[in-house]
Write a structure and sequence with these properties.
binds glycyl-adenosine-5'-phosphate, 13 helices, globular, 21 strands, 3-stranded antiparallel β-sheet
Length: 435
């Protein structure tokens, strides 16, 4: 039978990717499920399925390899999520980690003030949800940290917060790491872990949720060398995404204006990605000066300074912080990989073309690395294929698939971005070669 050539088609640009199609692909193929779905779900919380967990693990492994394993000036830690409440007083989060919020008295929907202003462009008096005019309450500061209690009594003294960033776990361990590793400046401490923010307006799938994972590194440097190291980490982090296949046209660096800088920051760049919702922050790289170590020294009464043996000077190091989101990175990798192709061989065979999804992941990011596909599920072919599968799975995440036609099986793997498929056919029995 003559094969029809598939139509050459340009790759979808990231802004053409529909978030709805992506959400549905993620659900269909076990990447991401709505959380607690059998109870109707809990807004903006997501569970990672069998392939999603591999995707996230690959992102975290690539980050850890690049920032910790392949360098001798960065070490890792894993700090507790629940920390002494004074940590958040010292860091400024107890007082300042808040968004001004208004509530529409008609529909009771809550908004961040900046969202309402952007929606209305000039006036801030119309509710974007129900269009009621002049129905907003006065703006009120809303702290984004989740409160909980340690022990059986729900009283003020027992109250703690779920960490809204992993960074503070690194700062409070500065002296522990310094004393146990005998590192000299400049050196960094890296951590990957969950963070929690009671976002007023979470949404856009896994872009902004209330529970997410961060990959953060605090790189401690001598004051005066901070600008140079800041530039170094901005470049380094931008190239990390490119090296993992993110297309250059979807990636850019944006310096923060003075009015955007966080209270602790001396300078900040965002690595931005062109998401389907437009250019948005993927990662922030900040020069935090000595704000955090100084604050913790003053609130804890403990010395957080560094003695420089070369110059016999004692000072509080400055810190450069690349801070990335695992979930937001997963979304960027998914959007960037997402493509559609016309499929010339649908079941009808009447020249009707179907569109099929192909994820073009970098091989380090792909959840499944190899699929083993015997041409027939009968012995001895299946037996040979299972031996190959057993050998390969010692090294990589490998799938074995013998159900349905070989074409369908290839399409299933294309849809989740598997870079290699191994077909075992009847010739394989004679020449021990596979396709
Ligand atoms: N320690 C600095 C810090 O936390 P941030 O800009 O607030 O800085 C860093 O957060 C990164 O964490 C963001 O660039 C984003 O990738 C991720 N992130 C922050 N809030 C998030 C949320 N609600 N949902 C998903 N990811 C989030």
């Amino acid at each position: 039978m003559a094969q029809r050539a598939s139509q050459p088609r340009q790759r979808l640009s990231s802004s053409q990717v529909s978030m709805d199609k992506l959400v549905s692909l993620c659900k269909r193929r076990g990447l991401v499920f709505p959380s607690s779905e059998i109870y109707g779900g809990l807004g903006s919380t997501w569970d990672y399925g069998p392939l999603g967990v591999e995707l996230k693990k690959n992102i975290k492994d690539a980050w850890w390899r690049s920032l910790v394993q392949s360098r001798d000036d960065v070490v890792g830690i894993d700090a507790a999520i629940l920390m002494h409440p004074q940590v958040w007083v010292a860091s400024g989060h107890a007082e300042g980690f808040s968004d001004p919020m208004v509530e529409c008295k008609e529909c009771n929907r809550r908004w961040r003030v900046d969202e309402v202003i952007i929606h209305n462009m000039v006036s801030d008096s119309k509710c974007p949800e129900c269009s009621a005019v002049d129905s907003f309450t006065e703006p009120r500061q809303f702290n984004l940290m989740f409160k909980t209690f340690v022990g059986p009594v729900e009283e003020g003294a027992a109250q703690v917060w779920l960490r809204p960033e992993t960074a503070q776990g690194i700062f409070v361990n500065f002296s522990n790491v310094l004393n146990t590793t005998r590192k000299k400046l400049p050196f960094g401490v890296a951590q990957i872990g969950k963070a929690f923010r009671n976002e007023i307006t979470p949404g856009n799938f896994i872009f902004r949720s209330r529970e997410f994972e961060q990959m953060e590194m605090e790189f401690f440097v001598k004051p005066g060398t901070d600008d140079e190291w800041f530039r170094y980490w901005v470049e380094e982090r931008y190239h990390w995404y490119k090296g993992l296949g993110i297309r250059e046209e979807n990636l850019r660096l944006r310096p923060h204006g003075d009015d955007e800088l966080a209270h602790y920051a001396r300078g900040c760049y965002d690595v931005e990605y062109l998401f389907p919702i437009g250019w948005s922050e993927l990662e922030g790289i900040a020069n935090r000066g000595n704000f955090d170590l100084s604050q913790h020294a003053s609130y804890s009464g403990k010395d957080m300074s560094y003695f420089d043996e070369e110059t016999s000077q004692r000072y509080t190091p400055y810190v450069i912080e690349p801070s990335a989101g695992v979930d937001r990175s997963a979304l960027a990798f998914l959007v960037d990989a997402y493509d559609e192709e016309s499929d010339p061989s649908p079941t009808s065979g009447q020249g009707k073309e179907e569109v099929r999804v192909v994820l073009r992941f970098h091989h380090d990011i792909a959840p499944v690395k190899v699929a083993v596909l015997p041409l027939s599920r009968k012995e001895p072919l299946a037996d040979r294929a299972r031996d190959i599968y057993a050998e390969l799975r010692k090294h990589w995440v490998v799938q074995y698939d013998e159900a349905q036609s070989i074409g369908r099986r290839y399409r299933r793997q294309d849809e989740v971005g598997t870079p290699l498929c191994v077909t075992v056919d009847f010739d394989s029995l004679d020449d021990s070669a596979v396709t």
